[in-house]
Amino acid sequence: MEFYDVLERRRTVRDFSHKEVSDALLKKVLAAAFCAPTNDHLHQLEFIVIRDKNRIAEMIAPVAGNTEAIQQTYIAAEGHAVDEDELAMFEDALPKQQRMLMQSGCLVLPFFRQRGCPLCEPGEQSGLNYFASAWAAMENIFLAAAAEGLGCALRIPIAGESAHVKKLVGAPEDYELACFLAVGWPDETVRPPFRRKEISAEDRIHEDRW
């Protein structure tokens, strides 16, 4: 598949089939993370792969309650959103947060080493360099998955979810959970009830001044 075709195909997938992702293919996709730029040149990423449904359920136990709280807050705040596509996306995505992590059958927990300052309390913007490196790696995984015909969905941990997972898996204190990452084969019978935004690059590129 051509590179720009991969970019076009890359989507967040929240509805998965029951087809299993082989270990070999999963390793190939995750290996793409180590081709991404990294601020310390060390690629200090670690991945925990979980396939057992009971173990996945244990990892994501806090998700349901937290998602319900977010859903109520978001709908209350954005009920009159001007952008109908944005609202449609969230209305589709939020109820699937727990299900998509279970349904994919392959939950990946990406950890990155966070040194120097707490993730949420950087002294300056450069303090987020480790986090930025982790997200560059996640995008490589999404692109590699798209090239192989796979789909991915992620959830950024909130409200104690990271601490819950770190305790269960015995992660070192100086490693942070980047996200919950579901990897699987898309359910081709499901189409999202919202459209992808069409953005004109020409309208967003400015010469010299805004």
Please describe what this structure looks like.
With 210 residues, the chain is an alpha+beta fold. Helices cover 42% and strands 12% of the residues. The chain has 9 helices and 5 strands; from the N terminus they run ααβααααβαβαββα. It has helices spanning 3-9, 23-31, 53-59, 63-78, 84-93, 97-103, 129-147, 161-169, 201-204; strands at residues 45-50, 107-113, 151-155, 175-177, 180-184. Strands 1, 2, 3, 4 and 5 form a 5-stranded antiparallel beta sheet that branches. The protein starts with a helix and ends in a 6-residue tail after the last helix. The model has no long low-confidence stretch (mean pLDDT 87).
Number of helices: 9
Share in helix = 40-55%
Instruction: Let me know the largest β-sheet.
Output: 5 strands, antiparallel
- What is the average of the pLDDT values? 87
Q: What gap, in angstroms, lies between the N and C termini?
A: 36 Å
What's the SSE pattern? HHEHHHHEHEHEEH
**pLDDT below 50 for ≥5 consecutive residues: which ranges?**
none
Which structural category do the helix and sheet elements fall into? Answer: alpha+beta
Beta-strand residue fraction: 5-15%
Shape: globular
Radius of gyration: 18 Å
Number of strands: 5
